[in-house]
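re: ur question from earlier - yeah i can do the single chain one, its not a big deal. heres the input i used so u can compare w yours
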Amino acid sequence: MDDPCDEVLAEIERYLDGECTAEAAAVVRAHLHDCSPCMDRADFQRRVRALVAQRCRESAPPELVARIRASLE
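and the output i got, formated as tokens:
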């Protein structure tokens, strides 16, 4: 991978999860500061994560839970 964008996008998930090294995080942050398309991609990923986290907090209706448990048994 010679393209800096490819390298950053390959690391973006770990960066957003806080799982990359401090050095890698600094490289990603610097690149995102200078590259609008990659920043847009990172912002999109953040919004998707926030939406999933919000939706996953809602409980399933009791009837659905009962149906799923019954089908698993």
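DSSP finds four helices and no strands in the chain. not sure if urs matches, ping me
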